[in-house]
Amino acid sequence: MAPRIVDNHTTDSYRVNVIGTDSPVLAVLCGDKHPPDMHSIEQAAEVRYTGADGLAGALAGADALFVYDFLSTAVPGAWHAADRLRWLHIASAGVDPVLFPGLVDSDVVLTNSRGVFDDSIAEYVLGVILTFAKGIARSLDLQRENRWLHRESERIQGKRAIVVGTGPIGRSIARLLRAAGLRVSGAGRRAREDDPDFGTVHASGTLAGHLPEFDYVVAVAPLTEQTKGMFDAAAFAAMKPSARFVNVGRGELVVTGDLVTALRDGQLAGAALDVFETEPLPTDSPLWTMSEVLVSPHMSGDFVGWRNTLVEVFADNFQRWREGQPLRNVVDKSLGYVPSAP
User: Where is the D-isomer specific 2-hydroxyacid dehydrogenase NAD-binding domain (predicted)?
Assistant: First the structure.
């Protein structure tokens, strides 16, 4: 039967009731932006859409939680109400907003949306590298001033890049940069040679010793206790002054004050930043006005139609979950990400 929407008379939640006694209860944390294309799921479950304030009420008696608002930090505070939860899916590749001790220590299965943003983020990284090399930002500034100022640009052919983070997004970045003519290496948990995408992969613990070799340093590592703050004053000091730093991973990978100092002191030639320790980036941050710094508002992966694709990934796993099949993108909660093959 068709579902019926029942208004709970709150400003932050409503539920879709499905006729049938065997229907699972699904809580969806979505805030004001409800996920699109949920009709098939609403036909098969009691769906409770909620904002942060109503999450605890929506979790009571829920079998599964879809964290569509992947930037929300509301789940830990409402976790006490999760009395029947078996599965949590987050609409992002990063899982740090929901990777708190209560979830880690529970039997709740955690899945993510790995694979949705890989190619889009790779295109962003290539785009900012070309922007730096070809002086595109400077050209736009001069155009606004009606100034004709001839300049020479750099080649990217043969330049060296290291991608810190060897998961699917890192691999997509490596493949695209390699196709564009850059010489690419990786940094990950385990050192190895002859990787199909990176060639040489350095162990993250030895990264500082290799940073002086690279023209572009691309951060895409997941946020864990081991990676938090890994790009600090020592890391920036190890890079050559002509290097550019790109962060499309997590803002907390970087000690922002150390990055600002390194840029001001000429230890780096530039930075392209899509993620920040504090989001939105405060209006008084010096990063906004520093030359050779490109700021984007956490959008490197957000292509036209990405919200629909996120729901498609969840819907596929929801069907698998209903049928007792293995779920895709199961996160190892002790690691903080979906393990990849060596």
Answer: 127-300
Task: Show the domains of the chain with their CATH numbers.
Answer: 4-116+305-323 (3.40.50.720), 118-295 (3.40.50.720)
The residues of the chain scoring below 50 in pLDDT are: 1-21, 342
Active-site residue identified among 86, 298, 322, 328: 298
- 8-state DSSP, 15: E
Alpha-carbon distance of 43 to 52, in angstroms, equals 24
Does 250 participate in catalysis according to the annotation? yes
Contacts of 330 (CB under 8 A, 6+ apart): 109, 110, 111, 338
* pLDDT at residue 3, as a whole number: 42
CA 70 to chain CA centroid, nearest Å: 10
Instruction: State the catalytic residue, choosing from 34, 80, 264, 279.
Output: 279
Q: Is 147 a catalytic residue?
A: no
Enter the tokens of residue 287: 């990063």
List the catalytic residue out of 48, 171, 202, 250: 250
Burial 130-154 (b: 16+ CB within 10 A, else e): ebbbeeebbeeeeeeeeeeeeeeee
- Tokens standing for residue 139: 């050209």
Question: For residue 22, what pLDDT is reported?
Answer: 74
